Amino acid sequence: MAHRSYPNRERALKQIERRCFEVGPVVPPRPLTAFERQLLDGTATIVETVEPMTAALHQMAPSAGEYRLWTR
């Protein structure tokens, strides 16, 4: 292999193009364990519970770059 002191963008793109369609053997997805299923269901429940609260916070929060001075 020849020594190349500087990386060549075109050479790298050609290497990517040559290998972009190489696909390994298809492996069927393994079934989830009971713990993994419970973890996914719990995470989904938390997201559904927190979603309305985050929507309300986004309505109250100032937009990016906006500064609100509290007057009390």
Shape: flat
Q: What structural class do you assign from the helix and strand content? A: mainly alpha
Q: In sequence order, what are the helices and strands, one letter per element?
A: HH
The span between the termini is 73 Å
Stretches where pLDDT is under 50 for at least 5 consecutive residues are none
Average predicted confidence as pLDDT: 82
What is the makeup of the main sheet?
A: none
What does the secondary structure layout of this molecule look like, with pairings?
Layout: H1 9-19, H2 34-60
TL;DR?
The chain is mainly α and 72 residues long. It has 2 helices and no strands. Helices cover 53% and strands 0% of the residues.
Structure overview:
The structure is a single chain. This protein has 72 residues and is mainly α. The N and C termini lie far apart (73 Å). 53% of the residues lie in helices and 0% in strands.
Keywords for this entry:
72 residues, mainly alpha, 2 helices
